[in-house]
């Protein structure tokens, strides 16, 4: 039981994904995500659904204590990854850290670090992210109806969209909820980085399939629709 909780804690708070851009863009983004910690005084407590944080970003009451995913550095070699397009689900965004607009879901802290090809911080870059909510819908009347399914509530909202400017260390944090799935796509978060207003790189962040399956199969809101139909492996890890 204890090992199960520790494993889940590592997934929730220790997961780090390092992504970089195509050579033309010369940027790297690293990300880590986390939620309030499981009760360390009772590591066997809540090994079921209760071991996960719920209630959306309002449950992130210990945000100041979250570990820094970049504390150990990012190394001296910035690997490259694939670039993508903005896609039909991009829409007008809002400058803010908490992008949930009070929507429920599994709370996530998304920390991003923007650096150049020499792994040096890039200040004053804007990082724009957007993703589907737990029900698999994007928001915004200016997004394609494919993305909102024409849902009136989704079209009227701006949830799970936001933009921030990197600080002197090239860092931004977003508070959000774990994305939901929709047919034919593996779970993902879109992002684009702009410098001096020019789009330099656009791509997507993906989650480990084991984590995505654990969320979709066991967590309230996420488990109502059944198992997702596309995994990273099925999509080749890039779609």
Description of the structure:
By secondary structure, the protein is of the alpha+beta class. Helix content is 13%, strand content 24%. It has four helices and eight strands, in the order H-E-E-E-E-H-H-E-E-E-E-H. It has helices at residues 2-14, 145-148, 152-156, 209-218, and strands spanning 16-20, 27-34, 107-116, 125-130, 161-165, 171-177, 188-195, 198-206. The strands form two sheets. Strands 1-2-3-6 form a four-stranded antiparallel β-sheet. A four-stranded antiparallel β-sheet has the order 5-4-7-8, with no helix packed on it. A hairpin with a 6-residue loop joins strand 1 and strand 2. The protein is globular, with a radius of gyration of 17 Å. The protein starts with a helix and ends in a 21-residue tail after the last helix. The model is unreliable at 1-50 (pLDDT under 50).
Search tags:
alpha+beta, four-stranded antiparallel β-sheet, 8 strands
Q: Helix- and strand-based class?
A: alpha+beta
Biggest β-sheet: strands ordered side by side in the sheet: 1-2-3-6
Mean pLDDT: 79
- Helix and strand pattern: HEEEEHHEEEEH
Rg, Cα atoms, Å: 17 Å
- Structure annotation, total helices: 4
The gist of it:
With 239 residues, the protein is an alpha+beta fold. 13% of the residues lie in helices and 24% in strands.
Q: Secondary-structure blueprint of this entry?
A:
Blueprint: H1 2-14, E1 16-20, E2 27-34, E3 107-116, E4 125-130, H2 145-148, H3 152-156, E5 161-165, E6 171-177, E7 188-195, E8 198-206, H4 209-218
Antiparallel strand pairs: 1-2, 2-3, 3-6, 4-5, 4-7, 7-8
């Amino acid at each position: 039981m204890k090992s199960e909780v520790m494993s889940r804690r590592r997934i929730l708070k220790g997961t780090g994904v390092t992504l970089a851009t195509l050579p033309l863009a010369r940027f790297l983004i690293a990300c880590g995500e986390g939620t309030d910690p499981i009760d360390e005084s009772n590591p066997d407590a809540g090994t079921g659904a209760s071991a996960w944080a719920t209630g959306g970003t309002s449950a992130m009451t210990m945000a100041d204590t979250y570990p820094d995913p970049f504390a150990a550095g990012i190394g001296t070699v910035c690997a490259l990854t694939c670039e993508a397009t903005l896609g039909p689900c991009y829409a007008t965004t809002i400058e803010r850290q908490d992008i949930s607009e009070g929507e429920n879901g599994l709370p996530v802290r998304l920390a991003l670090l923007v650096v150049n090809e020499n792994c040096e911080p890039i200040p004053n870059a804007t990082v724009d992210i957007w993703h589907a909510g737990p029900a698999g819908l994007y928001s915004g009347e200016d997004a394609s109806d494919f993305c909102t399914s024409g849902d009136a509530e989704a079209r009227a909202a701006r949830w799970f969209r936001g933009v921030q400017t990197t600080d002197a260390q090239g860092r931004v944090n977003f508070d959000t909820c774990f994305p939901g799935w929709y047919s034919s796509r593996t779970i993902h978060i879109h992002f684009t980085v702009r410098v001096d207003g020019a789009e330099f790189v656009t791509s997507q962040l993906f989650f480990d399939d084991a984590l995505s399956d654990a969320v979709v199969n066991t967590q309230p809101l996420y488990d109502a629709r059944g198992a997702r139909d596309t995994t990273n492996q099925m999509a080749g890890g890039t779609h």
